[in-house]
Amino acid sequence: QTVDTQQTVDTQQTVDTQQTADTQQTADTQQTADTQQAADTQQAVDTQQAVDTTQQAVDTTQQAVDTQQQENDISLDNLDHLSKDDDFSQPQFYLGAGVALTLGGIPVVSDWIKSQPGALEDIGLTATTGIILPDTLNSVEADTANLVYRIREETEPFNMTIPISLNGSMITKRGMNSISLLFFTTGKNFQSSVFAGSDSLSRNINLRQSLRFTSFSVEMGISREIPDQYFSIDGFDKNYFTSVIGFSPFARLSTSYNISDVPENDLRLNEIRDSVMLYQNDITGNGIAFSWKFGLSTIRSFSNSSDLKIGLYYSGSYYSRFRNGDGYLKNSDINTSADKKDDRVSFVSNRFEIKVTLLNLMNRFKSEP
């Protein structure tokens, strides 16, 4: 019985040992599973964190691209032109330079053209002026050829001037005020020749007549914006109706006559030349003028500091009081066959003008609140 009891105890001990081993194995397996799950969880967390970091980098890059694109768009807008709602919202002062093309009448030039000679009689000559008959006694060679008058260069009938200007302009949201210094000069030429018809061209006398008209003036202009519903031009920011008045303290009118030299031993040509010189005279007169101008102008802004102004105008001027020494120039000084020879030279010039001005921003003033 004692042996059976011992055997029972050993069996129970074996079972306990086996149970303890199974329990330990189960605990180890559970621990291994927990460790693996923790590792998987940590890996998932690390992976998600890496994804988040990558996404954040992508977002940052996209934001930088968007910012750069916005800056590029603004830059392109500036190079194109400013928005009409924003342009000139503050008073802006510009300095600029312009050039214009004018076409129209200048009556004093027309009168001078009318005075140009068309025949020998117009310069005090005849076909037989200075003729030399043979004189065998005094060994004088005969020169009996008839004189011939020919026009070599006619004066252009149209009057075109190219004024240049410097101006300052104050541009606001409502309009523009400006002051300009304006200069232009124009000239005309006429050439003719007198020679003996049966002689060579080496015995001719060349006549060159010139007229020069110059003006320096100061102009003040006022422009008011035209609403878009009444008038607009695609691609331009502002359109204006412009009126200008001006004064010229210096307007010069001058004519000159040049006669070619002839050989001293050519008796007939020297006599002809002396006769022509008595007929011709040089004149110079300095006068004054008042001017006015009306028309349309438009502005296009093509950068933050530069604008282009284009204008189309009717331009008029009244010139008078051309002083010549102690007196005044008379109509007969310009054209000996003028209707009112003793009247002072004065005239009105009417012209069509197109003008282009480049304006450069000098200062932007803040509007008062």
Stretches where pLDDT is under 50 for at least 5 consecutive residues are 74-86
- DSSP strand count: 11
Strand order of the largest sheet: 1-4-5-6-7-8-9-11
What summary fits the major beta sheet? 8 strands, antiparallel, barrel
Q: How helix-rich are the residues, as a percent range?
A: 25-40%
What overall form do the CA principal axes indicate? elongated
Beta-strand content estimate: 35-45%
Rg of Cα set: 49 Å
Distance between the termini: 120 Å
The SS-based structural class is alpha+beta
Mean of pLDDT: 81
The helix/strand order is HEHEEEEEEHEEEHE
Number of helical segments? 4
Name the features.
single chain, 369 residues, 4 helices
Secondary structure topology:
Elements: H1 2-80, E1 92-105, H2 107-114, E2 147-153, E3 160-161, E4 164-171, E5 175-196, E6 205-225, E7 238-259, H3 267-279, E8 283-301, E9 306-324, E10 327-328, H4 331-334, E11 347-364
Antiparallel strand pairs: 1-3, 1-4, 1-11, 2-5, 4-5, 5-6, 6-7, 7-8, 8-9, 9-10, 9-11
Commentary on this structure:
The protein is α+β, with helices and mostly antiparallel strands. 28% of the residues lie in helices and 42% in strands. It contains four helices and eleven strands, in the order αβαββββββαβββαβ. It has helices at 2-80, 107-114, 267-279, 331-334, and strands spanning 92-105, 147-153, 160-161, 164-171, 175-196, 205-225, 238-259, 283-301, 306-324, 327-328, 347-364. An eight-stranded antiparallel barrel has the order 1-4-5-6-7-8-9-11. Strand 9 (306-324) and strand 10 (327-328) form a beta hairpin.
Question: Quick recap of the structure?
Answer:
This protein has 369 residues and is an alpha+beta fold. The protein has four helices and eleven strands.
